[in-house]
Task: structure prediction
Amino acid sequence: MIVTVRNPWDRSHHERGDARSDAIRPFGAWSDVRLVTAARASYHAESRLSAPPFLINVAPMAEPMDAPSATITRWWRRLHGLPGGRLVFSWMIGRMAPYTGSMGARVVDLEPGHAIWTLRDRRPVRNHLRSVHAVALVNLAEVASGTAMLAGLPAGTRGIVRGISIEYLRKARGTLTAECRCSPPAVTQDTDFPVTADVRNAAGEIVARAVVTWRLSPRS
Result:
């Protein structure tokens, strides 16, 4: 991936004819990561608004992502310990899957075969009963499943969701936490592999349980 990082409120580089802040650099450059996190920290120190004062435009590199496990794990390890790093990682996942990014979920923890995500209870994700919408719960469970699975895929294996079933156990209100644990097997042929993701409320009660079936295939 490559990333363009630009602060639209900073006009100093235009005044001095310096276009460096608009340069496109590899997203792996630590300078860009620090710029993103520093900009966010600086902004929140000066304002209570929620929107960050910088733009992040992520575009795919010319080469395909042949090792999603290694890529996702590498970026998590680089970002999660930095101020705002988990938020930036969540944005990255949201850019990879824009519909998933639209609900505003945030990653809490990630390791191969294990992921935890949270979702705040707010109006855009609610239904007419003032609880979190059923489809938002599916989305939250799916992203927990997806990141746990992709982070744990053996080298040379790819995965895609083949089916999802979900059971709603109670109304979902307040901040929700989705967790998935799985142990992806070594794959030599197309294999359907189901994993479970639980969504809990702040009291630790399970409000929804999803079973996500992944089709795992060896890369040709």
